[in-house]
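Hi everyone, sorry if this is the wrong subforum. Our group has a chain we'd like a structural model of before ordering constructs, and none of us has done structure prediction before. Sequence below.
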Amino acid sequence: MAQSLRPQALQRQRLFRDMSVEQLADAVGVTPRAVRHWEAGTRTVGDRAFGRLLEVLRCGAQDLTGREPGTENLADLRRDAGLSTEEAASALRRKRGAHGLHISAEKIRDLERGRRVRGWMWGSPETLGRVAHMIAQVYKAPDRVVMDAWRRSRPEDPLPVLPVRRPRQPSEESMAVWRALNKRQRTYLTCIFRHDQEVEEEQRQARLVGAEQRPAAEWRRMTLAVSASSDVVGYTRIQEGLRAAGVHDPGAGSSVAALERRGLIVVYRDRLYVDGLGDIPRTRVEMTRHGRAVARAALGAPREAGPPAPLLSLWLWKIMVRVARAGAQGVDGSLAGRGPHYLAVGQSPDGRTPSRGFIVLRHPDGVTHGPYRWFLTDSGRSHIADHLDAYRGLYPSIDTEGIDESSG
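Answer:
Right subforum, don't worry. Here is the predicted structure as tokens:
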């Protein structure tokens, strides 16, 4: 069942936002008396009101309940969305994939409590995957989070099979923008886009080997040109691409300005110190999301799809394998990188999004003091058992021999 609100936590969040009882009540749509009851612990908070509290107080459910990220079940996700079982069922019935499922509040409650959901169609993993995907849309949660919550709520059931994602077709709007560019502007946008993707791949590879990560705001800003003789400073990587494409005077003039006016790139101008020359003007560029969409549509370069929704990226799977291999010994608590933010109970990538809850930092079994170490949780072991074959096919370079035994 969804965990209850902690009265002192609610009062602390209200005071932190500098809100009176009356102001909070008005924002949530209840009476001041109801808020006082909640803060005194004499009345429970309804599902709809709970979702409104999270929205008004701009906090996560863990801030009000003490529930740790990475432990959410289906009832938790529904309540975080501010929906009663009746409201959730009504919203799900309106989804395109709900035909023939006869979704009701009773079926939602059965689903959350691990009970058999009546109806012959509900036994199919493909149908359950359709339901899980619709729940993700209605609760405004990622598919992977719903799948994890489903496993915690219904550990004995077959795993739902999510619908296969259809590749997006290039939008006519993006193609219209591309057609409006002249040949030189298209060449500039193409070269900037390709360098943007190269830098992104370099950052991805650095993350895989555990290198220190730079903020995207830094590496997304790429040097286009420096105002000095090429005999002294050479050409930038973007300029080299432009020259290879037949642009032999690759500067930062009218073509760049035209791309910026259309919202395809952002231009930054600063100064760079060069030995023997001193401070010289530099032009840097950063692609906007709109610019990437236009370039992808025109060049037939689809967005990196990543692994299927329930599965982990390569770098997170490597961490899972490492912890699984450690078994009862666990992994050193100083596990480097941002992996724990995405994988660990009690962690969260952004302070609100649930982590997967697949690893936990604790003392080894039978030990009450000393250093903490990383171990798999029950959710982590279930995830490996459910998807090990898929991972072996997706990431064949990762040695997983014996991992099913060590993580069992």
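For your construct planning: The two ends are 26 Å apart (CA to CA). The chain has a mean pLDDT of 87.
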